[in-house]
Amino acid sequence: MGIKYFILMLFLLILAYVAYSSYKRINNYQDYNLAGKKTGLFALTATLVAAEFNTATLIGGASVAYAFGTVGVWYTSLIFIVVFLVYAFTVAKKYRKLNISTIPQFFDIRFSNQKFSETIRVLSTFITLFYTWLAPAAYLAGISVIGHVLLGVNPITFSVVVVIICLLLAITGGLVTAIGIDVVAFIMIVVGIPAIFFIGLEAAGGLSNLSQVYEPRLLSLKPVWDTEVNFPIALTWGLQITFLYIAAPWYGQRVFSAKNENIAYKAMLFNTILIVLLYGFVAVSTMLAKVAMPNLSEPEQALPLLVANYSHPIIQGLLLVTLLLVGISTVVAVWNSAVSIVINDLVKRYFAKDKSEKYYINASRVGLTAIAISTLIFGIIFVGNIQNSLLYLSIFTGMVAIPILTSLYWRRYNATAAIASMFVGLLYCTIALANGFPTYFVSPIGAIISALVGVVVTLMTTTKEDINRSKEFFMLIDSEKDNHEEFQKSS
Questions:
Q1: Around 177, how many Cα atoms within 13 Å sit in the side-chain half-sphere?
Q2: What's its membrane topology (predicted)?
Q3: pLDDT for 226
Q4: 145-149, 179-183, 272-276, 338-342: which has the minimum mean pLDDT?
Q5: Do 285 and 76 form a contact (C-beta atoms < 8 A)?
Q6: Would you give the DSSP letter of residue 440?
Q7: Cα atoms in the Cβ-side hemisphere of radius 13 Å centred on 18
Q8: Residue 487 pLDDT exceeds 70
Q9: Quick check: 264 and 96 in contact, CB under 8 A?
Q10: 110 or 229: which carries more pLDDT confidence?
């Protein structure tokens, strides 16, 4: 146990150094909020991987693999091929060209001077803020499971300690600190996750022994339709998080910070490959854990128990740090995006315009403190129900993606249609969840209804003036150079 704590303290010192060096690099609010928009290819790839590689999916998603074999591989790994390739090919370059700071600002630019443009911005502000304010609690719940299993610490006590550490790291240098932590986490992840796979391989006595605990159909990648978590649910989850990530503020914030649109695009492609491979290792490792520990009452403990029971104390310490960095980096990432929304889309726009750079940095730190407290409260509630918590939270944010995608590829689309599309999608999903509809009848049907309403309202309400106003927006996102300043002046 002493070795684990020594290694843990060593890495906390490394994180403290990252935070301090980030603090020294902050010269203005853009540095704090978007790392000065200077993030290069390696750093952007690292922060995208670390921001996605979270404890909610790591622990909650892996439990699906423990229970249902390769259904968990689909659910935890393979769906990300679609998720991030869609992001790369549809929005990555365009987001960076717009030179924005938050997702709601996208709507502000797209529907500039149109009727209801302010309404759609406000609505998207509160929807994206809803997810980023609550989702870190699901990640914290995953971290508490890791701490309880690998260190024997009470989950509530461990949650308090982790939140304090995350807060101290986050308030120093904003996104600069977050990216620095993500780079450290990324290095540990690409080494540590394959190491967990080999530990599982040894503990299980080889892949061939998976047949002892799984039916043949749960060892094939062919779709399985009749388990509690099945192929339709995996596809639904994939569709849902595809929409979620298009509207995800923490991913958007990182893409916005890229040096240019080509770096944003390439980093997303590398991120796709790495996430699929890493989560694939996680899912198979958890399946191997079932061979060694076939009767766990809490499948969410499978991965940390594999590390605790079948690795050397030094390896345990390093893997403990890896798993904790996964959680800490994601919590800090989502916190930063939540506070960015609060400052850019509420404080700077409505309550405290034209204040000093220092004012907005300090306001961000106050916001981080508030979200840290709420994360701790909700994190305790989410323990034991990690994946479901994330599932429900993602449904509503995903409804923002339909207007975003339509806005990017249909010139006639207007603010009225975007509001109607978003509102109807949210309304349907709320009714579906309240009435206990099956998962695959919630977000997929909600997306279809949302898209259809958007099309109908567009055809009914779009004017020639709306189309003319959208021309400059499409000139900007389709151009080969950054014309954002000229676009803002003309708007």
A1: 30
A2: Multi-pass membrane protein
A3: 83
A4: 145-149
A5: no
A6: G
A7: 23
A8: no
A9: yes
A10: 110
pLDDT tens per residue, range 395-430: 888 889 999 999 999 999 999 999 999 999 999 999
How confident is the model over 199-218, as a mean pLDDT?
93
In DSSP terms, which residues pair with 39 in a beta bridge? 258
Q: How high is the pLDDT of residue 221?
A: 86
Q: Which residues contact 287 (CB under 8 A, 6 or more apart)?
A: 65, 66, 69, 70, 72, 200, 210, 214
Alpha carbons 133 and 421: distance in angstroms, whole number? 23
Question: Which residues, at least 6 apart from 107, have a Cβ–Cβ distance to it below 8 Å?
Answer: 117, 120, 121, 124, 403, 407, 415, 418
Q: Which residues contact 451 (CB under 8 A, 6 or more apart)?
A: 402, 406, 421
Sign of CA dihedral 201, 206, 207, 211: negative
Report domain extents, the chain: 2-28+37-98+129-394
279: β partners: none
Mean pLDDT of 191-203: 92
Per-residue pLDDT tens over the stretch 120-142 = 999 999 988 888 888 888 778 77
| Contact by Cβ (8 Å): 439, 457 | no
Asked whether 174 and 26 are in contact (CB, 8 A), the reply is: yes
pTM: 0.87
Mean pLDDT on 39-61 = 85
Please report, for residues 16, 105, 203, 315, the alpha-carbon distance to residue 261 in angstroms, rounded to integers and kept in the order given: 31, 17, 45, 39
- Distance (Å, whole) CA 189 – CA 448: 37
d(CA 100, CA 472): 16
CA 228 from chain center: how many Å? 25
Q: Which of 293-297, 327-331, 332-336, 483-487 has the lowest mean pLDDT?
A: 483-487
Nearest to 233 by CA among 220, 242, 224, 222: 224
So what's the pLDDT on residue 384?
Answer: 47
Return the ∠ at Cα 400 (arms to 271 and 42), rounded to 5°.
20
- Residue 379: which residues within 8 A CB-CB, separation 6 or more? 136, 137, 138, 139, 140, 141, 144, 159, 163
Please name the residue that has the structure tokens 């980093």: 267
For CA atoms 129, 131, 134, 135, give the dihedral sign: negative
- What is d(CA 446, CA 323) in angstroms, rounded to the nearest whole number? 35
pLDDT at 107 over 60: yes
Domain 2-28+37-98+129-394 class in CATH: mainly alpha
